[in-house]
Structures are given as structure tokens and as C-alpha cells.
């Protein structure tokens, strides 16, 4: 579990985001909503350990740690796929060695998301949503403690949720906690937060 | 291994070969110059001036001439030997006894010190000969020595050029190798910046980036240096190459290259998610 103690994220031009209510409990699917420029991406990058301008402490299982000490993977708008190489090469990119079992899991998840036919195609032939799905598959098979998806609703809609159900199920079984940020709140999720006026509130 | 990296490694091997070829070429030139110089010196040493002189002036003139710094040896031909020569040359076998009784002029040969005897010394020699008394004839011509003098002067000129410019030239090429290596490493690292950034975002362990960078640094250098060394060793063993740079030179070059190769990691472009 990750807790935030007297935690404030500091941004440019005096921007501050106060994070006190947020508790990321293992296995949950958490949604953080907010308008543009409210600090959603900064929060995700801070949890991932990429952004270091903050005050306060992050407690991981009750112990103060540096962000990123736990295994957290972030899926954001940044380029995270090699555009000129194949889907399979991109999927296997982070693995030093790829086992037969892992390969099977990846192929199953690709089948379920309808991407198996693209396995030998270069990334640039895929749509934006397909690219994000690939990133998602690549991330969940690494069994991270936390999977952070920034601007979820920019890439995925409700129908995507159905396509990706096998991926999310796999993540849930593996005990991966999912944290997503959205502009518009997606219904049917139980753990929801909203950012307004520089403060993160639990709904 | 990517084609670009292979081409870059081949390029480094070529630069190293040129660098080592310069060393071999210099050694060959020096050997050739030394041989040619030796031949020219021997030619001067073996070409004596011959002086025919009155018997009573012989001792004094021989002493005076032999005191010159450019004279190696003054060799007086004994009277008996002279009689033999004349007898043989002019078929005077029957008159040999009579010849011995005659007061023949004396002959001595002057052998010059090859390292000191040049055109200036030739002038001094002629002047000295003129000062001696009783000289009947001098058998000497500067033309006999001129080719040797010119060759020695040419060799000296070449040696000076080598001495003056060799270090600049050789170490200059060494610098070209190091700069080429630096450019190759920077090019490789800069091209991989995006790759590693995506690798990191994909969840890849960054320790592999560190390991990969160190291994690439070593391999990019080790392959050309080892290839140059092995080939030169083989050529020298087969006597195709007369000389090869010493092992310590190869080691030193590898160490300098390694330093440059790792320096490239420090100055290579860095990119992080911001």
C-alpha cells in the first residue's frame, strides 16, 4: 500500500497539488479525475519516481521510501514504442530473457485484444489505441506492483474496456494495482478521486 | 551487430593499420637509408688519393698529411712492391734487378675518413698537398667522391625531415584514431538515446543499459586493436612485415582508447522524460 504524508507536488509557476487523501491499496482499480492542468500527469510521474519536485513523504507499506522504490510502470503520452520495429520486438523489449510461458501469456492477451494478427507488423502501422493496448499488455506481463495509466480516456473508451478485460483480469490476478487518470469520470469504478482547486479529494 | 557499427569498426581498423604502417614504413626507410649511407661511406673509404713524391720528402709529407682530421690512414708503398708493380705492368722481368738499384720516386696512398671527408675537406686536402714539397704527381679527382657526397647529403636531408616531422605525423595519426573512436562512440550512443529512453519506459532494467554501454565501449575498441595486433603479429611471423610495433605500444594505445571510449559516455547526449 502507498500512502502520502503531508504530500504536496510542486510544479512550474507556483503550481501546487496537495495529496493527502490518496491511499493506493494493493489490487485496487483506482481512478483519478480532473480537468487539464490540474496535475494528474505530475502525480502519476511522481508515483512512478520520475518527478522529484515534492514536499512530504511517501509511505510504502508504512515505511517512508523514495518514489519508484516499488515496481511501478507508467503508461503516458510519451513515446514508449520503437516505431520502426515489429510489435513482437516491442513487446519483448524490456525482457532480458523471454520464457515460453511468458510468450504464451503475451500471445493469449494479444488474441483477446484482437492484435495477434499485427505481431509481425511495424508499430507505425497501428492506431493510437492499439499502441496503448500493446503498452498495457507489455506492462501487465511484467507483474508490476503498480500500473499507472495517464489520460486513460484519451486512448480508451468503454468498448476498449471490454477488449482489454482479459488484460485487466490478468493484472488483477497478479495483484497489480491499477491507477488511471481521466478527464471525464468513468462509471462502474469503485475507487474514485478527483482533483479540484489544487487538492486531491476522495469521492 | 548493426551494419553501421561494423562499418565504423572496419574504419577504425583501417586507421590503426595506417598508423602502424607509418611505423613500419619509417623503419623501412631508416634501414634503407642506413644501408645506402654505409655503401657511400665504404666507397669513400676505398677510394684513396695517390701521391708520387721524391724519396727524401716522403716522411715529412706523409706525416703532415696524416695529421689532417679527415685522413684515416697514409699507406706508403714499399720500394720492392713498387718494383714488382712496374715489372709486371711493363713486362720488365729481365730488368727487375736494375730497377731495384734505381732511385725511384716513392708512392703513398691516402685513405680518407669516410664520416669526415666531404667537399670542404677535399679543398683543404688539395691546399695541404700544394704546401708539401717534392710532390711529383697527385692522382686524385673529386669526381670519384662526388656521387657519394651527394648521396650522403640527400640521406642527411631525409633524416632531418623524418626527425623534425615524424612525431607530429605519427602522433597526429594516433590523435586521428582517438578522435575517430570518440566520434564513433558518440554516434553510437547518441543514436541509442531514444532506444534507451523507450526501453526505460517499457520497464526494462537500466542495469542492462549500463552493461551494454560498457561492453560496446570495450568491443568497439578491442576488436580493431586486437585485429591490428593479430594481423601484424602474423605478418611479422611470416616475415612479410620486417618489424611490428611493440606489445607495450598496443597496450598503451588500447588504454588511451579505452579512456576516450569511456569519456564518450560522459559527453554523449542524455535524454530523460521531463
- Tell me the fraction of residues in β-strands of chain B, as a range: 5-15%
Radius of gyration of chain B: 35 Å
- Helix and strand composition category of chain A: alpha/beta
CATH class of chain A: Alpha Beta
* Strand order of the biggest β-sheet of chain B: 2-3-1-4
- In whole angstroms, the N-to-C terminal distance of chain B is 31 Å
Q: Tally the structural domains of chain B.
A: 2
Description:
The complex is a heterodimer of chains A (203) and B (274). Chain A has 203 residues and is an alpha/beta fold. Chain A has a single domain (2-202), classed as P-loop containing nucleotide triphosphate hydrolases (Rossmann fold, 3-Layer(aba) Sandwich). Chain A is built from seven helices and eleven strands. Chain A has helices at 40-48, 87-92, 100-113, 128-140, 152-155, 158-163, 165-173; strands spanning 2-10, 16-19, 23-24, 29-33, 54-60, 63-65, 72-75, 146-149, 177-182, 191-196, 199-202. In chain A, a hairpin with a 5-residue loop joins strand 1 (2-10) and strand 2. The two termini of chain A are 19 Å apart. Chain B has helices at residues 3-45, 58-66, 79-90, 96-101, 119-131, 143-201, 206-237, 247-267; strands at 49-53, 71-77, 106-112, 135-139. The longest helix of chain B is centred in the middle third of the chain and has 59 residues, at 143-201. Chain B has two domains: 3-38 and 157-267, no CATH class; 45-150, Alpha-Beta Plaits, CATH 3.30.70. With 274 residues, chain B is of the alpha+beta class. In chain B, helix 6 runs parallel beside helix 8 (247-267). Chain B has a four-stranded antiparallel sheet. Classes of the chains: A alpha/beta (203), B alpha+beta (274). Chains A and B meet through helix 4 of A and helix 6 of B.
Amino acid at each position: 500500500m502507498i500512502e502520502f504524508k503531508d504530500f504536496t507536488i510542486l510544479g512550474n509557476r507556483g503550481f501546487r497539488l496537495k495529496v493527502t487523501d490518496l491511499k493506493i491499496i494493493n489490487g485496487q482499480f483506482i481512478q483519478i479525475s480532473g480537468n487539464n492542468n490540474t496535475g494528474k500527469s505530475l502525480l502519476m510521474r511522481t508515483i512512478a519516481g520520475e518527478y522529484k519536485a515534492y514536499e512530504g513523504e511517501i509511505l510504502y507499506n508504512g515505511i517512508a521510501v523514495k518514489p519508484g522504490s516499488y515496481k511501478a510502470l507508467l503508461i503516458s503520452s510519451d513515446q514508449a514504442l520503437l516505431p520502426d520495429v515489429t510489435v513482437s520486438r516491442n513487446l519483448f523489449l524490456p525482457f532480458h530473457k523471454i520464457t515460453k510461458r511468458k510468450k504464451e501469456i503475451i500471445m493469449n492477451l494479444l488474441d483477446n485484444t484482437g492484435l495477434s494478427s499485427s505481431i509481425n507488423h511495424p508499430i507505425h502501422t497501428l492506431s493510437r489505441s492499439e499502441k496503448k493496448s500493446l503498452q498495457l499488455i507489455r506492462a501487465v506481463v511484467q507483474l508490476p506492483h503498480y500500473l499507472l495509466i495517464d489520460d486513460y480516456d484519451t486512448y480508451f473508451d468503454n468498448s476498449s474496456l471490454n477488449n482489454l478485460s482479459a488484460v485487466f483480469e490478468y493484472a488483477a490476478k497478479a495483484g497489480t494495482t491499477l491507477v488511471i487518470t481521466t478527464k471525464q469520470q468513468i462509471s462502474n469504478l469503485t475507487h474514485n478521486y478527483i482533483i479540484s482547486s489544487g487538492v486531491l479529494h476522495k469521492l | 551487430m548493426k551494419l553501421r557499427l561494423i562499418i565504423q569498426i572496419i574504419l577504425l581498423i583501417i586507421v590503426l593499420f595506417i598508423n602502424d604502417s607509418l611505423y613500419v614504413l619509417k623503419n623501412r626507410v631508416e634501414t634503407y637509408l642506413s644501408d645506402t649511407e654505409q655503401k657511400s661511406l665504404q666507397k669513400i673509404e676505398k677510394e684513396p688519393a695517390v701521391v708520387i713524391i721524391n724519396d727524401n720528402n716522403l716522411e715529412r709529407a706523409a706525416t703532415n698529411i696524416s695529421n689532417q682530421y679527415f685522413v684515416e690512414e697514409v699507406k706508403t708503398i714499399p720500394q720492392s712492391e713498387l718494383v714488382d708493380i712496374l715489372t709486371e705492368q711493363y713486362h720488365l722481368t729481365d730488368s727487375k734487378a736494375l730497377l731495384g738499384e734505381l732511385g725511384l720516386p716513392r708512392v703513398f696512398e691516402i685513405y680518407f675518413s669516410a664520416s669526415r671527408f666531404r667537399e670542404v675537406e677535399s679543398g683543404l686536402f688539395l691546399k695541404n698537398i700544394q704546401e708539401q714539397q717534392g710532390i711529383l704527381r697527385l692522382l686524385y679527382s673529386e669526381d670519384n667522391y662526388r656521387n657519394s657526397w651527394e648521396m650522403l647529403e640527400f640521406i642527411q636531408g631525409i633524416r632531418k625531415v623524418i626527425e623534425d616531422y615524424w612525431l607530429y605525423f605519427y602522433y597526429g595519426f594516433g590523435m586521428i584514431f582517438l578522435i575517430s573512436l570518440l566520434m564513433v562512440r558518440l554516434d553510437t550512443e547518441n543514436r541509442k538515446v531514444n532506444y534507451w529512453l523507450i526501453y526505460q519506459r517499457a520497464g526494462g532494467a537500466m542495469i542492462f543499459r549500463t552493461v551494454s554501454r560498457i561492453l560496446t565501449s570495450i568491443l568497439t575498441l578491442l576488436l580493431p586493436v586486437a585485429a591490428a595486433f593479430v594481423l601484424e603479429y602474423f605478418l611479422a611471423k611470416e616475415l612479410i612485415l620486417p618489424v611490428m610495433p611493440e606489445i607495450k605500444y598496443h597496450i598503451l594505445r588500447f588504454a588511451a582508447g579505452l579512456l576516450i571510449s569511456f569519456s564518450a559516455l560522459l559527453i554523449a547526449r542524455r535524454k530523460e522524460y521531463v
